[in-house]
Amino acid sequence: MPVERTLSIIKPDATARNLTGRIIAKLEGAGLRVVAQKRVRLSREVAEGFYAVHRARPFFNDLVSFMISGPVVVQVLEGDNAIARNREVMGATDPAKAAPGTIRAEFAENIERNSVHGSDAPETAAQEIAYFFAGTEIVG
Ligand code: ATP
Ligand code: MG
Q1: What separation in angstroms does the CA of 25 have from each of 46, 84, 101?
Q2: How much is the mean pLDDT over the chain?
Q3: How many Å lie between the centroid of ligand 2 and the Cα of residue 36?
Q4: Cβ atoms within 10 Å, residue 81
């Protein structure tokens, strides 16, 4: 299995409920290592740029407003198969459909306020990591 890096975001619904530590424990428990991390408040411009691929979707404006409504914790996770492994421990986008024990099944409020983001492919992982972190901020 390849060692990969992926971008993770702990979203405002989770930081508001003080769930950062419990979510990180789940990520680490799944074999993922936090190799970069910062807590930031996204500007509208940064959130729109991050979710640009969803610009045409009906939920885009709500999603951006949600993502800037409070602090987020942006992370780079590293591990064997990190991209798929992170998606697995996150669970399905809609928490009602997420497998028991996953982060979204345990913590997400609804399909929008779903506690975490994870990159979905090697290309998007590389783009998303570079969007938030300089190479010197990632310490493996
Ligand atoms: P993420 O990209 O955040 O890891 P995902 O890949 O599981 O989540 P996407 O389809 O990329 O899901 O959607 C991005 C985000 O947009 C979702 O995590 C969720 O916050 C929001 N979203 C997706 N679908 C809907 C929807 N039908 N209604 C409201 N918000 C939605
Ligand atoms: Mg996605």
Answers
A1: 27, 18, 12
A2: 98
A3: 20
A4: 16
Read off the tokens for 81. 């198969």
CA–CA separation, 54 vs 94, rounded Å? 16
State how far the Cα of 119 lies from the Cα of 90, in Å rounded to an integer. Answer: 11
DSSP character for 17?
T
Whole-model pTM over 0.85: yes
pLDDT score at 108: 98
Q: Is 110 exposed, middle or buried (0-12, 13-18, 19+ CB in 10 A)?
A: exposed
Dump pLDDT digits (tens) for 112-128: 999 999 999 999 999 99
Contact 112 CB / ligand 1 (< 6 Å)? yes
